[in-house]
Amino acid sequence: MRTILNVIWLVFAGLWLAIGYVIAGIICCILIITIPFGIASFRIAAYALWPFGRTIERDPDAGAMSTIGNVIWIVFAGWWLALGHVITAIPLFVSIIGIPLGVANIKLIPVSLLPLGARIVES
User: Fold this and answer.
1) In degrees rounded to 5, what are phi and psi of residue 85?
2) How many CB atoms lie within 10 A of CB 53?
């Protein structure tokens, strides 16, 4: 069932969201100081392509630099990506088949806002 949902997700939402994350990652990697944000963005892009069967865990040892980085991320990229998740989730909730996809899209919002200190693990 996860594979079917992942394929449907990839076609209707995942590809576009992953492109957004990759664009944010490329922009972040252009400047040397924002490379950690670019790496986090690429990691989340891979998760946005194939989200079913994986989950997000917060790293309790992330530290203060992760918090500072997350605040900077929210200001420059996070809220744009969270808005993309909301805009993509709304049409998915319209159909019965799209409801699980909309829920998965909503579950991506916290990691799009706070990517540093998050790990993507198999569920």
Assistant:
1) -65, -40
2) 12
Q: What tokens were used for 48?
A: 């946005």
C-alpha angle 65-69-73 in degrees, rounded to nearest 5: 170
Structure-block tokens of residue 100:
């699980």
Residue 24: predicted pLDDT: 84
Contacts of 59 (CB under 8 A, 6+ apart): 66, 117, 118, 119
pLDDT tens digits for range 18-51: 998 899 889 989 988 889 999 999 999 999 898 8
What letter represents residue 108's amino acid? Answer: L
pTM: 0.82
Q: What is the DSSP string of 56-82?
A: EEE-TT--HHHHHHHHHHIIIIIHHHH
First and final C-alpha spacing in the chain: 14
